[in-house]
């Protein structure tokens, strides 16, 4: 059989699936999709105003990320992370990111690092505005762009996957408790250490930041999840 060509409708379908997946991630962050609850593709499709097919495709993609799990003949359940899960994800990130920021501090020119400052400020601004979607987006861009400066694409991919799996745990609780801004400001501290070429300081800051985030998860993840509201627009 010859190589299949991509046609317009397939690309449109792919974009719609990605839009639906992003909308569902946003709903999880906001507590609109509850941990442990089971949701059917037709019901979610009706709320989003799309057909069930892209919703099923999006949910399968989220299942591969560990965010949901299929429930036979019912739909998908939003997965819950255990304390052990969070400990293990944090340990893996520390093993990768702590030495990497030290190497970046020693090898990357200050002007390349300075280019990350607007993104670091976005994190703080989003936290102050209680914009959890904006916070996670800016936080992801900062960390992955920073790690990319080490020149190892597989490393960036690995951390990206870890971040997806540890994604939003306790984020709404951290926001309600007022501790999210303090965590956000640590990105600016890290950036200043990197620009100053302080490799030991940058490593210590990254280790402290990851440990701080983990301890905040413990404090902020336990309050009851709010009742679901209408899902955000998938566009």
Name the CATH class of the largest domain: Mainly Alpha
Rounded to an integer in angstroms, the radius of gyration calculated over CA atoms is: 19 Å
CATH overall fold name of the largest domain: Four Helix Bundle (Hemerythrin (Met), subunit A)
Q: Quickly give the structural class.
A: mainly alpha
Q: What value does the average pLDDT take? A: 82
How many domains?
A: 2
Shape: elongated
Q: In percent, how much strand structure appears in the residues?
A: under 5%
Task: Provide the succession of SSEs.
Answer: HEHHEEHHHHHHHH
**What is the multimeric organization of the chains shown?**
single chain
Low-confidence stretches: 1-10, 220-235
The CATH fourth-level homologous superfamily of the largest domain: GntR ligand-binding domain-like
Order the strands across the largest sheet as they lie in space.
Answer: 1-3-2
The termini sit apart by 36 Å
List keywords for this structure.
69% helix; 4% strand; disordered C terminus; Arc Repressor Mutant, subunit A; mainly alpha; Four Helix Bundle (Hemerythrin (Met), subunit A); disordered N terminus
Tell me what you see in this structure.
By secondary structure, the protein is mainly alpha-helical. The chain has two domains: 71 residues, Arc Repressor Mutant, subunit A (Orthogonal Bundle); 138 residues, Four Helix Bundle (Hemerythrin (Met), subunit A) (Up-down Bundle), CATH 1.20.120.530. Helix content is 69%, strand content 4%. The protein has eleven helices and three strands. The chain has a three-stranded antiparallel sheet. Helix 6 packs antiparallel against helix 10. It is elongated and about 55 Å long. The N terminus and C terminus are likely disordered.
């Amino acid at each position: 059989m010859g190589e299949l060509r991509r046609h317009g409708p397939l690309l449109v379908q792919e974009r719609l699936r990605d839009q639906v997946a992003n909308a569902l991630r946003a709903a999880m962050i906001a507590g609109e999709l509850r941990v442990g609850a089971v949701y059917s593709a037709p019901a979610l499709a009706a709320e989003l105003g799309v057909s069930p097919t892209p919703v099923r495709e999006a949910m399968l993609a989220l299942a591969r990320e560990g965010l949901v799990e299929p429930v036979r003949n019912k739909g998908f359940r939003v997965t819950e992370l255990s304390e052990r899960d969070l400990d293990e994800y944090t340990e893996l990130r520390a093993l990768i990111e702590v030495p990497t920021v030290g190497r970046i501090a020693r090898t990357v020119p200050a002007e390349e690092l300075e280019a990350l400052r607007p993104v670091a400020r976005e994190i703080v601004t989003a936290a102050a505005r209680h914009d959890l979607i904006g916070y996670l987006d800016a936080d992801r861009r900062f960390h992955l762009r920073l790690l990319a400066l080490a020149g190892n694409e597989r490393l960036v991919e690995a951390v990206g996957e870890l971040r997806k799996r540890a994604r939003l745990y306790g984020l709404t609780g951290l926001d309600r408790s007022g501790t999210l801004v303090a965590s956000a400001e640590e990105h600016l501290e890290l950036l200043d250490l990197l620009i100053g070429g302080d490799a030991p300081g940058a490593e210590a800051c990254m280790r402290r930041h990851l440990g701080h985030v983990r301890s905040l998860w413990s404090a902020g993840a336990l309050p009851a999840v709010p009742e679901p509201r209408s899902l955000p627009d998938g566009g």
